[in-house]
Design a protein that fits this description.
The model has no long low-confidence stretch (mean pLDDT about 70). The chain has about 45 residues and is mostly helical. The chain has one domain. It has helices at about 1-20, 35-45. The protein has two helices and no strands.
Length: about 45
């Protein structure tokens, strides 16, 4: 029984993560020395 509950909890958590990952806009915080590479990557998207 506990095994089934843990599987259900994992499934619910995975569904929550997947639904949050499909956002239209993503905000990312980066260190100052990574600003230029991140801007180059962002331009591709």
């Amino acid at each position: 029984m506990i095994h089934r509950v843990s599987h259900l909890m994992v499934a619910v958590l995975a569904g929550t993560v997947i639904s949050n990952a499909s956002a239209d806009e993503v905000q990312v915080a980066v260190a100052a020395n990574f600003t230029a590479p991140i801007q180059a990557i962002a331009a591709d998207f």
